[in-house]
């Protein structure tokens, strides 16, 4: 098993707070201070979780350079107090950066249907029979 270091625990907390501030900033009509604080916390937490070298390697790979440019450019626009445009650019960059991850995440979510309770729940919403088989 892998041991979680103290830096990774701090990084998980920073990433969680960053996501909270991003969500809270969007809910409060794109508050630029909350969004900027959330972006800084999220990126700092990511760097602490996977390491500074691996974070730089992730963002500056040749085939991910366009997504990284849009994502980090969106962060810069949010920091310059253009939150709506910055979040739109940042979201586009996020989709480009993680587009290879989306099929795997969707496959994982669809595999949750094989759990008996969730299968019964989803079949009720779709209109099927609520059998456990």
Description:
The chain is an all-alpha fold and 133 residues long. The chain is built from 7 helices and no strands. It has helices spanning 6-27, 32-50, 52-59, 65-79, 83-97, 102-111, 116-126. The longest helix has 22 residues, at 6-27. It starts with 5 loop residues before the first helix and ends in a 7-residue tail after the last helix.
Summarize the structure.
The protein is built from seven helices and no strands.
Give the N-terminus to C-terminus distance in angstroms. Answer: 35 Å
How much beta, percentage-wise? under 5%
Total strands: the figure is 0
The major pleated sheet works out as: none
Poorly predicted tracts of residues = none
Shape: globular
Class by helix and strand content?
A: mainly alpha
Helix content: over 70%
Radius of gyration: 19 Å
Helix tally? 7
Mean pLDDT equals 87
- Topology as a string of helices (H) and strands (E): HHHHHHH
């Amino acid at each position: 098993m892998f041991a979680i270091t103290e830096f990774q625990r701090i990084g998980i907390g920073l990433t969680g707070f960053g996501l909270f501030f991003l969500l809270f900033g969007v809910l409060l009509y794109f508050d630029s201070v909350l969004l900027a604080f959330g972006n800084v916390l999220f990126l700092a937490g990511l760097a602490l979780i996977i390491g500074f070298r691996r974070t730089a390697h992730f963002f500056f790979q040749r085939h991910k350079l366009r997504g990284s440019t849009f994502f980090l450019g969106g962060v810069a626009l949010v920091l310059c107090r253009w939150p709506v445009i910055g979040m739109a650019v940042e979201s586009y960059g996020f989709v480009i950066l993680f587009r290879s991850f989306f099929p795997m995440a969707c496959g994982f979510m669809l595999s949750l249907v094989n759990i008996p309770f969730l299968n019964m729940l989803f079949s009720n919403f779709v209109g099927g029979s609520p059998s456990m088989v």
